[in-house]
Specification:
By secondary structure, this protein is mainly β. A hairpin with a 6-residue loop joins strand 6 and strand 7. It is about 5% helix and about 45% strand. It contains 1 helix and 11 strands, in the order ββαβββββββββ.
């Protein structure tokens, strides 16, 4: 799957581990849909547009610039794990530095199972902080 991220008039390949993402058939969506709730904005599901999405956990990727490994910390409920992972095997949204993935489930188009998890990602890339959704698209019946 091929896609392009554009910002500031420049285009580049998106951040992340492209081989793992292709294996998982995940896509990245840069449009962040929201709904105005008065005092704040509510995130909307990037797959179906529904506004009832729930936080499941978070994954923090700590990596020195172009380092061969990344420290990956997973928080899911009351479970916390940390591991040093080779950079080319991690699902870090950044190709070069730190990243963050906040995991969600959508009440409308999917539960919390691994194939339906939505991830709101932050990636450090050459001085920019990039934000995008990463998820598996729905299959047509």
């Amino acid at each position: 799957m091929s896609y392009l991220v554009t910002h500031g008039g420049r285009s580049h390949a998106p951040c992340g581990n492209h081989q793992d993402m292709a294996k998982m058939k995940r896509i990245t969506e840069k449009q962040i849909m929201t709904q105005d709730m008065g005092s704040a904005f509510a995130l909307r599901c990037p797959r179906c547009g529904w506004d009832f999405i729930h936080q499941l956990g978070a994954i923090v990727f700590h990596r020195g610039e172009d380092a061969p490994s990344v420290v990956q910390t997973n928080v899911l409920g009351d479970n916390v794990s940390m591991a040093v992972v080779p950079s080319d095997k991690a699902q870090n949204p950044s190709d070069r530095r730190q990243g963050l993935a906040i995991q969600f489930s959508c009440e409308h188009c999917g539960g919390g199972d691994a194939d339906n998890v939505l991830e709101l990602t932050l990636a450090q890339h050459k001085g920019y902080t990039l934000i995008a959704w990463r998820f598996t698209p729905l299959t047509k019946p």
